[in-house]
Amino acid sequence: RKEVEQDPGPFNVPEGATVAFNCTYSNSASQSFFWYRQDCRKEPKLLMSVYSSGNEDGRFTAQLNRASQYISLLIRDSKLSDSATYLCVVIGFPPNQAGTALIFGKGTTLSVSS
Amino acid sequence: DTEVTQTPKHLVMGMTNKKSLKCEQHMGHRAMYWYKQKAKKPPELMFVYSYEKLSINESVPSRFSPECPNSSLLNLHLHALQPEDSALYLCASSHPAGAGPDTEAFFGQGTRLTVV
């Protein structure tokens, strides 16, 4: 089983739509959770951290369910500029390693059209 | 300053060349990472340094050799690479896990490497 699994996508939505991405992680000892955004040929950039209490930043809402080992990202009122790949990232323990690292899901591609 | 600076931005090298990728941050982060990313794939972990010591090596071939000379710098030495090593190499830094609540990582713009 992969450490971090995401919806495969791609998601193609019209402007103004609400879209939700889901992610699950396999290691219950994972410590911190994030959504990153990556534009084509650019580096990943932090979109938001994810907390157990849920957190919101404008049109973006992130949720964490530790019991289910599940993370979500909701984007409301999609804009053309939201088109990107969204990466679910967990700080966890790579197999057979003593240290921790950012472990990435495969990413979900979002395309917002007018 | 939340910047991670990587040099060079682009690199073309032959299979017999030796080159180095450099990464620098001044955020006081004591965890630094190298990732490799191929097109349409997520970043793939290569190495992690924590407090200037190598804490993770994800079975990376020895033609890639990391170095962390101090808490602000991270290098990746390249030697005898293969064409399939062509990729975007990303450096990132963060506070080490467990060192506090703010453990998000910041990425450099990457070095786009082509091996010919």
Please provide a written account of the structure:
- The complex is a heterodimer of chains A (114) and B (116).
- Chain A has strands spanning 4-6, 11-14, 19-25, 32-38, 45-49, 55-57, 60-65, 70-75, 84-92, 101-104, 108-113.
- In chain A, strands 2, 4, 5, 9, 10 and 11 form a six-stranded mixed β-sheet that branches.
- Chain A has 114 residues and is mainly beta.
- Chain A is built from no helices and eleven strands.
- The radius of gyration of chain A is 14 Å and the shape is globular.
- The mean pLDDT of chain B is 93.
- Chain B is globular.
- Chain B contains no helices and eleven strands.
- In chain B, 34% of the residues are buried.
- In chain B, a hairpin with a 6-residue loop joins strand 4 and strand 5.
- Chain B has strands at 4-7, 10-13, 18-25, 31-37, 44-50, 53-57, 64-70, 73-79, 87-94, 106-107, 111-115.
- Chain B has 116 residues and is mainly beta.
- Chain B starts with a strand and ends with a strand.
- In chain B, strands 2, 4, 5, 6, 9, 10 and 11 form a seven-stranded mixed β-sheet that branches.
- The A-B interface holds A 31-32, 34, 41-46, 49, 87, 89, 91, 94, 97-107 and B 33, 41-43, 45, 48, 50, 55-56, 58, 88, 90, 92, 94, 96-98, 103-110.
In short:
The complex is a heterodimer of chains A (114) and B (116). Chain A is mainly beta. Chain A has no helices and eleven strands.
Task: Summarize the helices and strands and which ones pair or pack.
The complex is a heterodimer of chains A (114) and B (116).
Chain A: E1 4-6, E2 11-14, E3 19-25, E4 32-38, E5 45-49, E6 55-57, E7 60-65, E8 70-75, E9 84-92, E10 101-104, E11 108-113
Parallel strand pairs in A: 2-11
Antiparallel strand pairs in A: 1-3, 3-8, 4-5, 4-9, 6-7, 7-8, 9-10, 9-11
Chain B: E1 4-7, E2 10-13, E3 18-25, E4 31-37, E5 44-50, E6 53-57, E7 64-70, E8 73-79, E9 87-94, E10 106-107, E11 111-115
Parallel strand pairs in B: 2-11
Antiparallel strand pairs in B: 1-3, 3-8, 4-5, 4-9, 5-6, 7-8, 9-10, 9-11
